[in-house]
Design brief:
about 425 residues, alpha+beta, 3-stranded antiparallel β-sheet, 8 helices, about 70% helix
């Protein structure tokens, strides 16, 4: 058999093949009669009026607190729905509300005992949040969720709150009187400021009027000056315009003369051009032809001289190369001859030096006899002692013989004393 339920309740099917029981929040289900059982549990929102009378606060002041709580069994959460079914299945909404109310009232009393009257009265939002937080954590285990909690009323039988109100009223009245005095003071100050601003505005207005009058006079004087100046300028401009007109007439006359002179010059230039063309046809072109012929002849003569000069330079270069080759060959022959002499000197040593000395001997004799040759005459005077004259002559001969080795060494580069001592 099919059963249905609305969204504000849940169906629980238990029995055959339903372990654990099937929970359906809003919907339909098929139930086998006799072997399966269908039960319903309400999901409606419950409104609880939570009253806590004469609860002692932290300072020992008894107060009565009334709160309003909204709660319901959570059907969308299967775990919370299962917990609610286990605890409240078969109970009416009033019974479920009573259980939740007692739980909330206990938590509310506990929180009141930890707070002062001032904290509860002045910060109602904080008190509501604490009750909501503590009650929610406890009711969740029963499958109930707290939707909201608000503090409705706080009162006491000892006129404690009334006394607090009197103090606050007195403070407010005091603040009001102070505020009124301040307002009166500010009003007087503002009135004085207004009067001062009025006088300042009046003076400023008079100053502005005087400035405006001064500006008017200055501008009027400036305008009069400008008008007079314009009148004078207009008169001067008229005279200047007359002078300019006369000058322009003279300039136009000059322009006419210039145009006439220009036309004459153009005619003269045309005549000169005609004569130049005639002269060019009769004289210049034949002269250019003759000049061209002479230039070509001069160019040919120049090329001929250049070629002759180049040929002569080539001949001189070849002759120089031949002479250089001959000098080089002669130098090589002399070098070979000197090398052979050096080899001979190296081989024969003293004999070669003697041979060389004999070759140079005529030159040495010439060198030695040169002082005698330079003498024009030689006069020998004897005083009767022939031996003395002979001695003088032999002295001169000995002087020549002493100078002989130096002359030989100068001519040949050979030291005679070494040669004679070597040969014995």
């Amino acid at each position: 058999m099919f059963y249905t339920c609305g969204p504000n309740e849940a169906m629980v099917v238990s029995g055959f093949c339903r372990s654990p029981p099937l929970m359906i929040p809003g919907g339909r289900v098929f139930v086998i009669p006799c072997i399966q059982q269908l039960q319903r549990i309400s999901l409606n929102t419950l409104t609880l009026n939570v009253k806590s009378d004469k609860v002692y606060t932290r300072h020992g002041v008894p107060v009565s607190v009334t709160g309003i709580a909204q709660m319901k069994i959570q059907g969308q959460n299967k775990q919370m729905l299962a917990a609610a079914c286990q605890m409240f299945m078969g109970k009416s909404e009033a019974e479920i509300a009573q259980i939740a109310l007692e739980t909330l009232e206990g938590h509310q009393r506990a929180i009141i005992a930890h707070l002062t009257v001032e904290e509860i009265y002045k910060d109602r939002k904080k008190f509501s949040e604490q009750v909501f937080k503590v009650a929610s954590s406890d009711l969740v285990n029963m499958g109930i969720s707290v939707v909201s909690y608000t503090l409705k009323d706080v009162h006491d039988d000892q006129d404690y709150l009334h006394s607090l109100g009197k103090a606050r009223t007195a403070q407010v009245q005091k603040d009001a009187r102070i505020g009124e005095a301040k307002n009166k003071r500010d009003a007087v100050i503002r009135e004085a400021h207004a009067m001062q601003e009025k006088v300042s505005a009046q003076y400023k207005n008079e100053i502005d009027m005087a400035k405006a009058q001064r500006d008017y006079e200055l501008k009027k004087a400036a305008y009069d000056l400008e008008v007079n100046t314009k009148k004078a300028e207009s008169e001067m401009a008229y005279q200047l315009q007359v002078a300019k007109t006369k000058q322009r007439i003279e300039e136009e006359k000059m322009q006419v003369q210039v145009v006439e002179r220009t036309q004459q010059i153009m005619l003269q230039e045309q005549e000169i051009t005609r004569r130049e063309k005639e002269l060019e046809a009769k004289v210049k072109k034949p002269a250019d032809a003759e000049r061209y012929r002479l230039e070509k002849l001069a160019e040919a003569q120049r090329l001929k001289m250049i070629m002759e000069a180049e040929a002569e330079a080539e001949s001189i270069r070849m002759k120089g190369e031949a002479e250089a080759f001959a000098v080089e060959a002669k130098g090589r022959a002399q070098a070979e001859q000197m090398a052979k002499k050096a080899e001979a000197f190296q081989q024969y040593k003293d004999g070669a030096m003697v041979d060389m000395l004999l070759e140079k001997l005529p030159l040495m004799a010439e060198e030695i006899s040169r002082p005698l040759c330079e003498a024009n005459k030689i006069t020998m005077v004897s005083s009767g002692g022939g031996e003395v004259g002979a001695a003088k002559l032999s002295g001169e001969v000995m002087d020549i013989m002493v100078r002989l080795p130096a002359a030989v060494e100068k001519l040949t580069g050979v030291n005679i004393s070494q040669v004679t001592s070597g040969t014995g």
